[in-house]
Every structure is written in C-alpha cells, then in structure tokens.
Amino acid sequence: MVICNYSHFKSISITPSTNRCRYDTSTPRVPTFRCNSTLNSTQLRAEPEPVFTSVKSFAPATIANLGPGFDFLGCAVDGLGDFVNLRVDPDVCPGEISISDIHGTGTSVKKLSKNPLWNCAGIAAISVMRRLGIRSVGLSLSLEKGLPLGSGLGSSAASAAAAAVAVNEIFGGKLPVSELVLAGLDSEQKVSGYHADNVAPAIMGGFVLIRSYEPLDIIRLTFPTEKELYFVLVSPEFEAPTKKMRAVLPKEIQMSDHVWNCSKAGALVASVLQGDLRGLGSALSSDKIVEPKRAPLIPGMEAVKRAAMEAGAFGCTISGAGPTAVAVANDEERGREIGHRMVDAFMNDGNLKASAVVSKLDRVGARVISSSSR
Amino acid sequence: MVICNYSHFKSISITPSTNRCRYDTSTPRVPTFRCNSTLNSTQLRAEPEPVFTSVKSFAPATIANLGPGFDFLGCAVDGLGDFVNLRVDPDVCPGEISISDIHGTGTSVKKLSKNPLWNCAGIAAISVMRRLGIRSVGLSLSLEKGLPLGSGLGSSAASAAAAAVAVNEIFGGKLPVSELVLAGLDSEQKVSGYHADNVAPAIMGGFVLIRSYEPLDIIRLTFPTEKELYFVLVSPEFEAPTKKMRAVLPKEIQMSDHVWNCSKAGALVASVLQGDLRGLGSALSSDKIVEPKRAPLIPGMEAVKRAAMEAGAFGCTISGAGPTAVAVANDEERGREIGHRMVDAFMNDGNLKASAVVSKLDRVGARVISSSSR
C-alpha cells in the first residue's frame, strides 16, 4: 500500500490494483491504480459521465521561485510545455487509469515511470478522478514531454497540469480551477515537494502568488495585456544537484536580508500589476537569500547573469531550482541577443553547452487542444 | 558641532550659529542653526527667492510597519496630523531657521526641543533649505502638534513632512517630492532611525512601498479611488518602551517564517492595488515575525486584536512600533463599533484607557493649507 496525499488536510490510501477487473483479458498490462476512497463524501456525489471519448491537453513551462518570491511566486511561459492524450479505455478497469505511453525528445524521458502512482501526470489524474468520484470509467493516458526533466522549468508541474485538465475535461469540466491546482499539488508533493509556484501558474497561466498553503489560497497577478514581456530561458547541459540545491538553503535568515527580500517581493508584485518591466527585472535580480546560495552550484551562473544584464536584460535570476537561467526583456530581438550572450557565458565561464529560447508570458495556462466524442 | 546627514550618501556639518548675524538685535534668541555647506554643489545653484512671506502646511498621521511590511510599507490616514506655520523672518539670520513656538494638546509636546537641530521639523526644514541653497533668507517656524508623541502614528514624520513642504513652498516649490522625502528621512534618521515608511507616506499620501534605501526608491501603491477603506486607530494611554520594542526584534528568522511573511507582504501589495479589502486585512493580520514579539509588550494588545476581528474588522495589527492598534473596515459605522470593542478590550485585558478614531486613507499627503505674499 502506498499513501498518497490528495490534499494537505487529508490523506487517502491508494492500493495497487492486484485483482483483475471485469474487462481484464488476462494479457499482461501496465500497472493501474485505483483510489480506495469509498468512505469519502466526494464519492457520494453523482458520478459524472464522460462527455468526450478522448481529449488532448497542453500545459506550459513555468518559472517558480521568481527572484525574491521563493516558494510563492511563479509564472507561465508560452511555447514550451507538455501534452497529454487521454481517452476512455474499456480495457482499463473502471475507476482506474493506465499510462500507455511516454515519449519526448530528451533522453531523460526514459527515467519516467509508467506506474501512475509514480508519475506526475498519473498522480494528478488519479486525484482529479477521485475528486470527481469516477468509479465506472477507465482511462488511458499518453504523455508527450516537451520539457526536459530537472531543468527548472516546471517539467513535473506541466505534466500534472495537463493531466488534471484533461481528466476534468473528459468528464465535462466540472471541477473549478482551485481543485485542479490541488490535484496538481498532490502530484508536486510526491515528486518535488509541497510547493505550488509551478503547478498553479501551469494550470492558471500568467503570474500567480501563493498567499497561503493552509488552506491553499492563490492570487492571480495580471500583467497588463498591452505591455510586452519576454523571458529569455537559457538551459545548460547540466544536471542541477537537487539535493545540494535544497541543502544549501539557509535555515535562518538575517533580519536585514529578510526586510530586503520582503520589500523586493512586494516591489515585484507591484511591478507585475503595474506593468513596470524595469521594476520587475530589478526585483527579479535582487534575491539576497536563495540565489546567492544556489548560483555557485551552477557552473557559470554568476557570469551568465552579468552577461544578461550587460546585454540589456531588465533582470536575471535562476528559474526554479535551476539550472536554467531566466532573463527578462521587452523586445524579442533584444531577447535573442541576450540569449546568445548568456549561452556564450555558460560556455566561457561554466564550460557548459546551453540553449536559449525567447518566450512570452503564457496568460492561459493548461488548456484543452482538441477533444473527440467518438 | 553636530553631524546631520542630509542624505544617506553624504553628510554635512551643521554648526550652532554662535556669531550674531547682521539682523541680530542682541535680545536673547532661540537657538538657530545654519547648514555649513558652502562647498556643496547644491549651493552653487541660483538661490531661489521667497515666493510667499508665510505658508501654513499640514502633514497626516501614518501607519508604518504595515503587518508583514516591517520597515518598507506604510500609509497615510486623514484627519490627524501636524501643522507648520512658516514665515520669512528678518530677525533670523539669513540661511538660518528658528523655531518660535511649539504647541499642541498633549502634555508630551513639552518634551520637544526648540533647537532646530534636535527637532524633527527643524531638521527637515534645514535639509530643505540646504537642498535649495538658501543663504539670504531667515525663516521662523511654529509647530502645532496634532499627533501625540510615541503613539505609533508617525508623529515625528508628520512634523518633518509638514516642515519640508512648507519650506519648499515658501521658495516656490522647486524641489521634487523625492527630495522632500530625503529631507524628511534626514529627520527620521536623527530621531527614530533610518526608515522611510512613515515619512514617505506622510509626504506622498496613500500607500507607499520602499523598494530600496540605497538609493532611496519608492513606489506609490494606488488603492482604487472607488473603494471604501477605513482605519480604526485605537491608542491606549501607555508609553510603548521604544528600546524594548527594538530590542525584542529577532536578529535571525526561520526560513519558513521568512517565506510566510514574504508571501503575505506580496499579498498585501496585491490587495492594495486590486482594492481587495478582505485580502488587505488578512495580510495585515498575518505578520509572524515582528508583531508576535511586540504585541506582548503592549498590555491587552492580543485581546484587542481578537476583539477587532470578532467585531468584523478585516484585519488588525500594531501601528508602527505601537502602542496604537490599527484595524481595517469598509464601513464607517462598523469602524466605530470595532473601535468601541477595541477600547473595551484595552481596558479589560490591559487595564489601559484608550481612545478610538475612525479615519479614511489620506491620498494627498503633506500639503499647503494657506500662503500669504504680504
């Protein structure tokens, strides 16, 4: 038995489906799991029927730990992300989900488990099924990774968000966004810790502030639509040592640094809402607590930041826990030039190959790409 | 000689005016002081002439350390404040200022020095004269204290702000607001520490975020004009032990508390800009770092906060360093009821008499009330 938290208040038990279900044809099958939650009130709701036979969804990459916004500020970026193909599958036991396929360009995709209990998309899908009270329909999920693993671009959150939206949509979209975020958070908790600053923007789009975790309370921060905002994302070929990245975080913080970061976080929020790109960049660059500890663990990062600023970026910091560096600009062409300089700096100072992408803010979040009723 | 910083970058020396000036009538005079800054470039500007013979100004009370906004978030409240009467005085040596009179309702007013170098209004006035390069005109200042000292309502900042605006105005208002804030900060630094979250809103009005101290960089946070916002200010008859109030501040902060306060500060900024009074109140109440240390030093404060919330306040915290408690409401009548309950709680739990005032946000800041050319 594996315990899987479906929210931060309650836990439910999820048991491996060892008994064959009635659809079982006795051929070997990929592992499927069922939420063993018959006593929960959610289950007593009328069970929704599938509205579609299949749904394809997408969820964008995200930048968490935005400068001084460690663990509570994140945003979504367009053009990069993960896809989920979900279908009603009579070969899967009712109330269960199976992961039929995982593919993507990076070699790291092979690391991903097809066991839904150990896969970000699977955990989020199970959580949504549970919240909807699905007992009579089995689902099959195919995951298409557009994001590399462990890059600091919210790869796990994108998979979870795409899966959550797909499962909700196939049953008529009955759950509100807040429930989808909770489902995504179930997944994040399992794979990378109980933080919502990737999965909330991956689902909601735009900038998101986590006001509270208990209960989960999220504010959408709308960057003015008439303003241009480009993210320059530069990912080196380097595996950020996750354990070290966590271990290096200070447990205690000087009061003066606290006030500094706190005021910069406030300034970042104000800059987003006021569409002040210069202020946003300045605040993004100003973290005195997390970035100074983590940057030295990513070869070349400090030089990359300097290069970005010298090339005209408004600000630059580590995306998530890295190793991707993110800079901001108000012009696509300038963004590309900044990207070149950052790539060069990774090579010259860190001896790392890197690639750059210039993306806009994704204001939509996880979305349905297509759906089919037959 | 007394050193008086005129900005946080440079210091100037201010010397007691021991030599009689040409206007001296040899009668005993209140002490006057001159900025000894002949070498500074500011002085090389064309000296402005007085546009008025007298000016009366007002500056509002302010709430600093707004909840999780310790040292960087403050706002101005209307209806309470200090007045300054300023006039060109041929009996005062050119380039000097004299404090002719200080009066007000509270007994604590007697504690205030008429020596301009040791008086908030005097220091700010000297700083503005210096910034304008005033060498040929002497000024006389009368201070009318509407705010009690040491109440946590920005009494010293209001005096400084009113004086700064009056001196600037009498010479034609040539200095920008940013310079007036720096002048006010010179005063605050001398009397209560280098923090701008009282004096910036006292001069600028509304909500103000201090983005940086070096260099000073301030963001105005506009609370939507169509929204109602009432502050319930309840001041007990109690002298908050300033030294203890400072000594009790933690030097180091747990990472989890830092993230908590930081996210609440971000939420407070967002709530102000979005006009979300419920969010504003919630964030205001959420400080885990400063308020829990200071509240126990103000008899009854914890009960007062509870009483405010039970009476329907959206939030409640300590104003500045106390002892005033501030709660927020969206209705004046409700605000008065909340005030009664808070006064009762101060008496019942802290054995302290207290008085309540319900004020709106002051959106204007320090202003000229009247001026005369002859």
From TrEMBL, chains A, B:
GO terms for biological process: threonine biosynthetic process. It comes from the Eukaryota. The keyword Nucleus does not apply. Keywords: Amino-acid biosynthesis, ATP-binding, Kinase, Nucleotide-binding, Threonine biosynthesis, Transferase. Residues 270-345 form the GHMP kinase C-terminal domain. Pathway: Amino-acid biosynthesis; L-threonine biosynthesis; L-threonine from L-aspartate: step 4/5. It catalyses: L-homoserine + ATP = O-phospho-L-homoserine + ADP + H(+). GO terms for molecular function: ATP binding; homoserine kinase activity. It holds the Pfam family GHMP_kinases_N. PROSITE patterns: GHMP_KINASES_ATP (PS00627). Residues 125-206 form the GHMP kinase N-terminal domain. Coiled coil: none annotated. Its EC number is 2.7.1.39. The keyword Protein biosynthesis does not apply. NCBIfam families: PRK01212.1-4, thrB. Belongs to the GHMP kinase family. Homoserine kinase subfamily. This is Homoserine kinase.
